[in-house]
């Protein structure tokens, strides 16, 4: 069935573009009209030769869209609908943008006889190795709908953990940014106008007032230098983080509160990925290869890499991870228990759940410490500026009396 590119007006009155499969342009108009879209232009497109086939298109797909697609596909396949028809049904729901083009192309590949995982492999920037390997295992074992449900569960849990962490850090970050902007505004705009009355006085100004005048003058007179220095430090920090990543990752693991937070997050990612893959029938060696890609801390990534090599040589997973001084002993003990009892997948899942909970607790603790410290720091700076203005006024009033 050909694929058409359309441009039209949605029911809300907004201009919309996308792809739709139909037998003819007339049929495409009918399908669009059924969706409430008034077609302005319909052109044919060879989906098999679209730019998305290379997997290098610059479009991005939101995690929420990918999770919704996975859950819908699992539901449709679980209801006994063939893959091609399931993908067509998802397309008919009015998806828009880059992701629609990808799904349309995948549908054409599957319709042409290609496996679903083979069609998805062309878009490895969109579909992770976990996703593709789980799909492959599901197709080989005849449990594709189960694997899709597990992938969707994995995606939803990952997004939930991310939302919790970002939500906890949102307020402190906003507070810090607002505080910095407020102090800069007071120093560069407000204070010069207030303190200008003191510059003509012959009397010696109090030390806080002199400090405030000096800082305010320096910021106003050398604003471009400070801006350039700030940009330079940021760029230098980014470059340092790339070139000295291993050293920085090792330092971060040794910082109180921060180290345990990073370790818990990385172990939770590793354990949940391993659990999902092993439950899906992926081999231990292949699961370790994929799980290594989700670990971003270089020190812990090296621990997983060494464990993978040792497992290839016949060592147990728990014993291999125990050799790393950075991998938590509790996680190792849970993995070893799972290996001995034959319930490695379940114990890995419990390990992930435990460390995800610990991530939330650590973030909450750090937030509870950072917030009052930042409020106290900003309040102290504002108090200093207020006193710097009030002290000379107070001395002048005393002199008049």
Report on the architecture of this protein.
There is one protein chain. With 401 residues, the protein is mainly α. The chain folds into three domains: 3-44; 63-127, no CATH class; 151-400, Type II secretion system (T2SS), domain F (Receptor-associated Protein), CATH 1.20.81. Helices cover 73% and strands 5% of the residues. Residues 46-58 have low confidence and may be disordered. Belongs to the GSP F family.
Number of domains: 3
Q: What is the helix tally?
A: 16
Looking at the structure, the CATH topology of the largest domain is: Receptor-associated Protein
CATH architecture of the largest domain: Up-down Bundle
User: What's the main sheet like?
Assistant: 3 strands, antiparallel
Secondary structure: number of strands: 3
- The value of Rg in angstroms is 30 Å
What share of the residues does DSSP label as strand, in percent?
Answer: 5-15%
Unreliable parts: 46-58
Instruction: Specify the CATH homologous superfamily of the largest domain.
Output: Type II secretion system (T2SS), domain F
- End-to-end C-alpha gap: 95 Å
| Dominant shape | flat
Mean pLDDT: 82
Main sheet: which strands, in order across? Answer: 2-1-3
SSE order: EEHEHHHHHHHHHHHHHHH
The CATH class of the largest domain is: Mainly Alpha
């Amino acid at each position: 069935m050909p694929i058409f590119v359309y441009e039209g007006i949605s029911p809300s009155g907004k201009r919309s573009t996308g792809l739709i499969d139909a037998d003819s342009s007339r049929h495409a108009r009918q399908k669009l009209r059924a969706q409430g879209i008034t077609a302005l232009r319909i052109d044919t497109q060879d989906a098999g030769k679209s730019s998305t086939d290379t997997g290098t298109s610059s479009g991005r797909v939101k995690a929420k869209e990918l999770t919704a697609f996975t859950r819908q596909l699992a539901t449709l396949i679980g209801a006994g609908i063939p893959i091609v028809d399931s993908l067509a049904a998802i397309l008919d729901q009015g998806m828009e943008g880059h992701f629609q083009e990808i799904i349309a192309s995948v549908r054409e590949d599957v319709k042409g006889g290609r496996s679903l995982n083979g069609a998805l492999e062309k878009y490895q920037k969109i579909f992770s190795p976990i996703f593709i390997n789980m799909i492959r295992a599901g197709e080989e074992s005849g449990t594709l709908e189960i694997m899709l449900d597990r992938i969707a569960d994995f995606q939803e849990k990952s997004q939930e953990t991310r939302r919790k962490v970002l939500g906890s850090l949102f307020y402190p970050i906003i507070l810090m940014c607002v505080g910095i902007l407020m102090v800069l505004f007071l120093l560069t705009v407000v204070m010069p106008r207030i303190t200008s009355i003191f510059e003509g006085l012959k009397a010696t100004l109090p030390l806080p007032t002199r400090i405030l005048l000096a800082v305010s003058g320096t910021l106003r007179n050398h604003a471009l230098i400070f801006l350039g220095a700030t940009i330079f430090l940021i760029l230098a920090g980014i470059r340092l983080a790339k070139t000295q990543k291993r050293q920085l990752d090792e330092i971060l693991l040794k910082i109180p509160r921060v180290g345990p937070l990073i370790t818990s997050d990385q172990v939770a990612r590793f354990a949940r990925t391993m659990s999902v893959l092993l439950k899906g029938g992926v081999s231990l060696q292949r699961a370790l290869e994929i799980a290594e890609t989700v670990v971003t801390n270089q020190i812990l990534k090296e621990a997983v890499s060494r464990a993978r090599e040792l497992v290839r040589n016949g060592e147990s997973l728990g014993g291999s991870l125990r050799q790393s001084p950075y991998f938590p002993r509790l996680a190792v003990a849970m993995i070893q228990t799972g290996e001995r009892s034959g319930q490695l997948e379940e114990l890995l899942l419990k390990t992930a759940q435990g460390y995800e909970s610990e991530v939330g607790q650590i973030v909450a603790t750090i937030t509870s410490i950072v917030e009052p410290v930042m409020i106290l720091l900003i309040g102290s700076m504002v108090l200093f500026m207020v006193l710097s203005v009030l002290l000379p006024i107070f001395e002048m009033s005393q002199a008049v009396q």
